[in-house]
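ok here's Sugar phosphate transporter domain-containing protein, seq below lol
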Amino acid sequence: MSANACQETFEHSGLHKFYSAVFYAGSSFLITVVNKTVLTSFRFPSYMCLGIGQMIITLVVLYAAKMSKTVQFQDFDRSIVLKIFPLPLLYVGNHITGLASTKKLSLPMFTVLRKFTILMTMILEVYILRKTFPKRLVYSVVAIVLGAMVAASSDLAFDVEGYTFILLNDALTAASGVYTKKKLGTEDLGKYGVLFYNALIIVIPTLLASAFTGDLHKAVTFEDWVETTFIFCFLMSCFMGFVLMYSIVLCSYYNSALTTTVVGAIKNVAVAYIGIFVGGDYLFSWTNFLGLSICMSGGLVYSYLIFNQKSSGSNTEGAQELKIHITED
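and the structure came out like this:
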């Protein structure tokens, strides 16, 4: 990452950082609930087609905004693919595994296992962005992962396929966050260009894959298409998919990949405990509840350390972080 890009990060105002984080947290919470309603309550059989719907809405909204001069981003040319790689692959993998794990797991377990994204993001920032972290932050991450393991060990609704999807989703989310931050700082695409060309490059291959596997046929023949409530929830999920991706890019642009992941963890505190009482698919056990509590407590401590460091860090710490960024070239 260049020194200019780093300097741009430091010039973002505190309000931009805070509001983009709140926007991401709210979007992430809403889409989790909506996706859970579509895939579980209505038993919609195709999480892949739901992802395709979200990509199509992203393309339509951003193209209309570009044509009306509301937003601006680079016109398509052959250099776009190389500029944006590997984000499209991470994007589609993140969408599909995220939707699949939402369908397979209860809300509390989904949010607990998503905590592994924090550890994976930290590891990727160390190896890709050359960052270092204080021991207190590392210890809080260990507490988060330990709580997640305790909760998962007694999950009475254990699903091997669901756990596989969610761990893949964690890895892809972490990689997507780190590379999104890197692309925003080094490529001349802009926030909207990253979103638009991600969706444009992968929507056709995903649609063909859905048709080849029979997933598209299941979606088309789904019997609840005549239900107004289902249609509303489906369209809401598609629109929220665009909003979520925009909020992630916005939060990463004004903050960092790690901060974006931390904000997601804060959101999961609310989702996990709400899911215990709402949703009907959480099987209570004391070990599971203890693991949830350890995980959530570690997440709050971690979040406090991160935001306290950003808001009250000394000039020496800021200079050290600047140095770390510059040496990423």
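fwiw The mean pLDDT is 76. kinda neat tbh
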